[in-house]
Amino acid sequence: MMQCLKRAVEGPRRPPAFPIHSRSLFLSNGMLAPKAKPGKKGQDKKDGRGGTTTEGKEEPKAHIFNIYSTVEKDHEMLPDHAYPKWLWKLEKPMKSYGELALMFLYGKDVERATADDYHRFRRLHNKNLIKLNNMRLKKSKRSTVKPVFWDL
Q1: Is there a domain that residue 148 lies in?
Q2: Predicted local confidence at residue 37, as pLDDT
Q3: Domain tally for the chain?
Q4: Entry pTM
Q5: Mind spelling out the 3-state secondary structure of the chain?
Q6: Domain membership flag for residue 120
Q7: Region Disordered: which residues (predicted)?
Q8: Is 26 among the domain residues?
């Protein structure tokens, strides 16, 4: 066994490029996947029963991941007013829980609030209430409760 390993690592009669001692090699049992049966997904039919084969046909090879392969030139950049207004809001960071809490609990700049802001606040507020309740119900009373406005 060791001779086979030595021959496999070093080669038949030439000196090894990277000398490896056979003691440093550990072989594990080979875990091979079972052979796929013909007719399964991803296998070509070799017996020729039914189906069409592509041996005689010449199909153009296309890159399936290049969705712009049929476009001859790049798209032109339009001026800013040609794009919708909601598109420019996507690049701004979302409001934090602290900002939303000041807005909806204390009324700071509540006039500028949107429905999306309110839904985000409700989702984050419920999440934080669950966290606080779980900390309260812990058996270990040594943990300290952090303030509600973590990110102010």
Answers
A1: no
A2: 75
A3: 1
A4: 0.42
A5: CHHHHHHHHHCCCCCCCCCCCHHHCCCCCCCCCCCCCCCCCCCCCCCCCCCCCCCCCCCCCCCCCCCCCCCCCCCCCCCHHHCCHHHHHCCCCCCCHHHHHHHHHHCCCHHHCCHHHHHHHHHHHHHHHHHHHHHHCCCCCCCCCCCCCCCC
A6: yes
A7: 32-61
A8: no
Quick one: which of 34, 41, 39 has its CA closest to 50? 39
Whether 101 contacts 121, CB under 8 Å: yes
Q: How confident is the model over 20-47, as pLDDT tens digits?
A: 666 665 556 666 667 777 775 655 555 5
Q: Rounded to 5 degrees, what are φ and ψ at 44?
A: -80, 145
What's the domain range around 127? 92-138
Q: For the purposes of burial, counting CB atoms within 10 Å of the CB of 101, is it exposed (0-12), middle (13-18) or buried (19 or more)? A: buried
